[in-house]
Amino acid sequence: MVISVVAEDFRIERVLIDQGSSTNILYGFTYRRMGLLVLKETPGCLYGFLRERMPIRGIVKMDTIFGEGSNARMIPMLYTVVEAEASYNIIMGRPALNRLKAIVSTYHLCMKYPTSEGVGSVWANSNMARRCYEDSLRVGQRMSAVNTLSLELDPRSHDERERPHPMKKLKEIQIDLRENQKTKISTIMTKEQEADLIRYLYSRIDPNFMNHRLSIAQDARSVMQKKRKQGKEKRKAIKEETSKLVTARFIWEVRYP
After folding, report:
1. Which single residue of 22, 172, 178, 245 could bond 251 by disulfide (Cβ 3.0 to 4.6 Å)?
2. What is the pTM for the complete model shown?
3. Do 109 and 184 fall within a single domain?
């Protein structure tokens, strides 16, 4: 399964959870992209399933965060840095899973581990796993093909990682006279905060305070898109899904002059 982690203020995608690996592997191209400088040189080699030999550049220790929000857990992790062409940035082996005390379910594409607040979970990214597999088929070809692999290194600050997360415990309230005009709010607010929020939601929002509009140039001209023909099965599926959205009053028909 393929997940993402945060290490050294980088969100790193393409992280393979490999329960058959005896070490945590950080590939050299990922190491350089992260701008890491501390590398303890360690002589030795790694051997693959077919006894292929891979020299070790060294080892590096990084605090690694699994999960987000209340699911997050940070542990110091020791990585073995190797130079090899790969479609992954990191391979998390048994040392990482044991340190995290993680249970991996490949059937559910989920990994769970204990946290200070209970049990945290990380879900696999099936789309990213498919991309990694497709890219792995190109590894070993000419260098230009390998260099096209995206590394998904996203620098994040600590403050950004601590941004607010959606509340899990919500309750439904009425915000207008019509029965279907409802919304959900958090249950952890005080009575005064809740009363202020409901009073604000009942009032009409001043457009000068908040306004949604399309950012379109004033001199832009209208362009009518060409009609796209769909097959019989697609037309039937589109009609069914649209009917569901209309019934739920999530969308409605409008006519423009």
Report:
1. 245
2. 0.53
3. no
